[in-house]
Specification:
This protein is α+β, with helices and mostly antiparallel strands. It folds into three domains: 2-48 and 62-93; 101-207, Cupredoxins -  blue copper proteins (Immunoglobulin-like); 221-332, Cytochrome Bc1 Complex, Chain D, domain 2 (Orthogonal Bundle), CATH 1.10.760.10. It has eight helices and 14 strands. The strands form four sheets. It has a five-stranded mixed β-sheet with strand order 5-4-3-7-10, covered by helices on one side. Strands 6-12-11-8-9 form a five-stranded mixed β-sheet. The chain starts with a strand and ends with a helix. The model has no long low-confidence stretch (mean pLDDT 85). Bound molecules: dinuclear copper ion.
Length: 333
Amino acid sequence: MIFLGLDLFPPQASTVALPIDLIYIYITAVSVFFTVLIFALVIFFSVKYRRRSDAERPKPIEGNHLLEIIWVAVPLVIVLTMFVAGAVVFFYIFHPPKEGIQMYGVGKQWMWKFQHPEGRREINDLHVPLGIPVKMTLTSEDVIHDFFVPAFRIKMDVVPGRYVQTWFKATKLGEFHLFCAEYCGTKHSQMIGKVIVMKPEDYAKWLAGQDPASPMPAVSMAERGAKLFQDLRCVTCHGGTLSALGPKLEGVYGSTVELEGGKTVTADDTYLRESIMFPTKRVVKGFQPLMPTYQGQIAEEDVLAIISYIKTLTPEAAVTADAAASAKASSAT
Ligand code: CUA
C-alpha cells in the first residue's frame, strides 16, 4: 500500500494478510477517532465551561444513569468486535489445515536451513508452491530466533529444544523477504533470506532437481534418516530383535508409550527428539537407561531426518533398518 509516496504495508501475499490488515486498520481507525474526539471535547468544554468570575459556583451534578450506560455499553461493544475478529483470525492461524505440504526449518546463528521431505535442502531460500498450504515445523540449533515473513503476516518464535509449528498459504507469485525477528547475536541483521513462491508445476520441477548440497539427486528426508540411523549405529540397539537393548521403533510413531515409573507419553516428534538428545529423561518401560546422548553430536536437521525415517517404520515394516531402507528404495522405483 503506497500512501504519500511511502510504502506503508508489505504486499499481501498469503490468505491471512488481508484479514490481519483489516483488523489492524480497524483498531487504528477506532483509536484515532476516539483520540481526536476526546481531545476536541476537552478543548471545547474547557472553553465553554470556563470560570467567568471568582464568585461563580457550578451547579451540583446528581449523576446521569442513561449517560453512564451509554459510555459503558458502546466501548464494550466496540472492543468485543475487536476481540471476536482477532480470535477468529488467531484460530485460523493456529489450526493448520489437514491438506498441504510439510516443510522443515532450522534456525542457526546466522542462517535459515530448510529441508523439503522429498529431499531438497536450502539455506536462506525457501521455495514453496502457490495456493497450497505449507506447514512449517521449526526449531533452533542454538538460541531463540524468529521466523518472520512480513508479506505473509506470519511471525513465529523458533525455540531451541522444541518444535514449533506455523503455516501459510501463498496467494502471490514472486519473492518475499524472510527475516529473523529476534535479536540472536552479532549477525542477527544478516539472518535474512527470501521465500520464493512458484507455480505448483514449476515447484514440482524444482523439487525433482538436484540437491545443491551434493552432486547426487536429492534423497528424501526419510532415506537420509535411514542412512543416519545406520551411520550413527542406532540400528545396533534398535534393530527390533528380542535381545535388543533399545525398544523397537516399528509402529512407535504416534503410539502411546509406557514409561519406567508408570507414566505414559505419546511418541510424537517432540518425544522422539527428546529420546535422541536426552535418552535417560523418559525411558521406555522394561529398558535400562543405557543409551548415550546425541546432544552436540547431531545437527537438528539430521534429527528431523531420523524422525522422518522413524515415521515410515510401520508395524508391518521389516524388522531391521536395512530391510526397511531397501524396501523403500525398491518401492520408489
Ligand atoms: Cu536469528 Cu536473529
